[in-house]
Write a structure and sequence with these properties.
Layout (H helix, E strand, L loop, with lengths): L8 H8 L3 H22 L8 H18 L10 H15 L2
């Protein structure tokens, strides 16, 4: 319940890294916390597992943070391609 009150993903990561008990509390219950965080920001596709939602949440958060620092030129850089693919997935709803 504590992790649900954090405002940033960085706070969640820091809290999760305190000890094994907090890591287990955040990742336990079949990644239910990550499902809730994913549902706060994104639409959920039926049949997506909690682990897949956790992985997508982490990947999207990273790319959204990192993608803002790319100087998009022609879209051929691997980072530009990953950010563009993630944005496409968000628009389509995957």
């Amino acid at each position: 319940m504590i992790a649900h009150h954090f405002e940033t993903d960085k706070d969640i990561v820091l809290y999760r890294s305190l000890c094994h008990a907090t890591k287990n509390a955040v990742d336990g219950d079949n990644y239910a916390f990550w499902r809730a965080k994913f549902c706060e920001k994104y639409d959920v596709k039926h049949g997506t597992s909690n682990k897949q939602m956790r992985d997508k949440y982490r990947s999207r958060s990273y790319l959204l943070r990192r993608g803002l620092s790319y100087d998009f030129f022609r879209g051929h850089h691997s980072g530009e391609i990953r950010v563009a693919q993630m944005l496409k997935d968000l628009i389509i709803g995957e």
